[in-house]
Amino acid sequence: MRDILDQAEVQRRLGQLLLGPFEDALSLARRYREVEGFHDYISERARLVIPVLVLIGLTAVACGLVPVVALVGTSAASALAGLLLMPVMLLGSLFVLGLVFLSWLEERSLARTLGRRTGREHKAMRWMRKKLGADLGRPPRVPWLLAAVFVALPFAVLLNLVPVIAAVLLALLAAAPVAFARLDR
Length: 185
Fold this sequence. Notes:
Elements: H1 2-34, H2 36-44, H3 46-71, H4 76-114, H5 123-131, H6 144-161, H7 163-183
Helix pairs in contact: 1-4, 2-4, 3-4, 3-6, 3-7, 4-6, 6-7
């Protein structure tokens, strides 16, 4: 009996890890539509948001191309698998990166609306605020399982296959929130 309960708990947690981010994304979209302050925050910063969204799109394309680049040339079945995985990886990485970025923007919008920080400031965030002049605020929630599958794994393969492109994308992704925060004053 205990074994059945443990299996049910594992299935529940796995379902939460996989479906929780989709529920978060739907809630985020609903809040964007319904909360005027969040919508206005993003609209007023379109000149900052659009370049980051383009970077996220380029990163998603790179992650989507990884299965094709890695598997084409090995065998016909592997090439087919790579081609079939391409849209899954593209959409998955786009989803994860977009969700994290828009969640971060919502947190910034909320902090601006309330006129204060929400939550405790992490040491790394405090260091960036003092040394780089970038108040990043509270870090967003990250769907770690999906991020590992759709972003970290493709980046690891990309670092092995095309290190220059992977390094440039990683540097730009790391610099994007810092630049956004510095320009959003």
